[in-house]
Amino acid sequence: MTQTTNHRLHALQNAIAPLREELIHHPVYQQVNSIDKLRLFMEHHVYAVWDFMSLLKSLQRHLTCTDVPWVPRGHAATRYLINEIVTGEESDVDMDGVRVSHFELYLNAMKQAGAHTATIEKMVADIIAGHTVPDALKAAGVNEAVQQFVGNTFETIGTGAPHLMAAVFTFGREDLIPGIFISFVKELNAQKQVDVSVFQYYLERHIEVDGDHHSHLAYEMTEQLCGDDETKWAEATTYVQAALRARITLWNGIASQL
Predict the structure, then answer these.
(1) What CA–CA distance (Å, rounded) separates 14 from 158?
(2) Which residue, among 173, 141, 142, has the nearest Cα to 239 in the 3D structure?
(3) With CB atoms 3.0 to 4.6 Å apart as the test, which of 150, 162, 218, 235 could cross-link to 170 if both were Cys?
(4) Rounded distance, CA 104 to CA 112, Å?
(5) How many angstroms separate the CA atoms of 91 and 99, rounded?
């Protein structure tokens, strides 16, 4: 990383800092103060877990060769970074050491906690059947805040620009769950009124893998893709800000339901 790239990285972080602070201190976390409200939160948040995987896999398609016959594509260092992240997100381990994607782990957490999964499962089934994402969301009866959030993610994917997808992946999706929320989940699980151990494991795993190891890899990937190109850094900043605003809209939508 050059000194210029480092300066531009910090400039992006400074530009998005107010939005990140608003998210980390959003009142929705304190509103989730019972198992029923946690279930409702999970029933909305699961869509952010799902479309995160779509953003990740789109990055992999653009930065590596997933076609046959194979040909080298992009830089080997960038290929390594994205493949390393995909491995962890798409085939991590659950509490028993069984391979599972983070999305499937989240679904397991929802089922254990007694949250409804029929809506998200219908949406996934419709997509498998060939429906578009907007149509599948509407058919599942997903609320407007969720539709807007997922729509923003797929707008980024639709650009086909790896530096924009990488920036949103790196700065718009990681490290946004505050400690106060995790403490509540731990306390709820300790009370043993309902078992939410899988969700607690998901949160802790999310911080351990996504918030630590993967975040460092994602930083490096974004720096490689934006390089010393001032225009790319400016575009990346704009798209990350839009992604964070979309997350605020999602949190506002959940808060209104609570």
Answers:
(1) 26
(2) 173
(3) 218
(4) 12
(5) 5
Nearest to 242 by CA among 166, 153, 147, 159: 153
Element (H, E) at 99: strand 99-100
Q: Which residues contact 81 (CB under 8 A, 6 or more apart)?
A: 217, 218, 220, 221, 224
Tell me how far CA of residue 124 lies from CA of 72, 103, 111, 145, 181, in angstroms.
32, 11, 16, 18, 28
Cβ contact 13:171 at 8 Å: yes
Residue-level pLDDT, tens digit, the chain, 258 residues: 565 667 898 999 999 999 999 998 899 988 988 999 999 999 999 999 999 999 999 999 999 999 999 999 888 888 888 898 899 889 998 889 999 999 999 999 999 999 999 999 999 999 999 999 999 999 999 999 999 999 999 999 999 999 999 999 988 875 567 676 778 888 887 887 788 899 888 888 877 665 556 677 788 889 989 999 999 999 999 999 999 999 999 999 999 998
